Amino acid sequence: MSDPASIVFIVDDDASVRHALSRLVRSSGYRAESFESGRAFLAAADLTNCPACLLLDLQLPDVNGLEIQHKLNAALPIIFITGHGDIGTTVDAMKAGAADFLPKPVCDTVLLDAIGRALERSMQMGERRRELASLQARVDRLTPREREVMALVVTGRLNKQVADDLGIAEKTIKIHRARVMEKMEAASLADLVRFADKLGFGASTSMRPVR
Length: 211
Fold this sequence. Notes:
By secondary structure, the chain is α/β, with parallel strands linked by helices. It has two domains: 7-134, Response regulator (Rossmann fold, 3-Layer(aba) Sandwich); 141-207, Winged helix-like DNA-binding domain superfamily/Winged helix DNA-binding domain (Arc Repressor Mutant, subunit A). The chain is 53% helix and 12% strand. It has nine helices and five strands. The protein has helices at residues 15-27, 38-44, 65-72, 87-95, 108-140, 144-153, 159-166, 170-183, 189-198, and strands spanning 7-11, 31-35, 52-57, 78-82, 100-103. Helix 4 (87-95) links the parallel strand 4 (78-82) and strand 5 (100-103). The longest helix is centred in the middle third of the chain and has 33 residues, at 108-140. One of its GO terms (molecular function) is DNA binding. Residues 7-119 form the Response regulatory domain. InterPro entries: CheY-like_superfamily, Sig_transdc_resp-reg_C-effctor, Sig_transdc_resp-reg_receiver, Tscrpt_reg_LuxR_C, WH-like_DNA-bd_sf. Keywords: DNA-binding, Phosphoprotein, Transcription, Transcription regulation.
């Protein structure tokens, strides 16, 4: 069953194609928002809504479809629809994360199936973003010392080893560790390690130990 809150963005410079795709999308229970150019889409589309996907013509007069894909930086799943595709372009688009690459004219059933998959992917992306935002908010509550302790604890180091590394008493480490567990809402060390992994621990500046 389609979700009426789902948005399908359509970008094609051919008005007849935009209208046909919009009718198909709306008849399937989704919201449709169409744009005649890549610049118009990039300037006006509200990408904060989720779930959403983009039906994108590869060869637009103003901005190449692959350029739009690059600018969006995986903000939402893209289904390329084009009459000018080639194997190299298809490979480039798929490597960059395109949800699908369909040649014109496209069968309605094939397109709707692709839209369904793309919107499901968008829902999963939204859930991951919300989870990461929640985890980052917890990290932001940590003091610099607590971040230092967390950075070492998630590597598997024992309290005594962490104390030696930081040059402070082991009992102080235990206090910091307990506060980290509480603020991160981690029920176990395994939870804490999993949270750090999801945040890309060690790669994010806000998660690095403060020295």
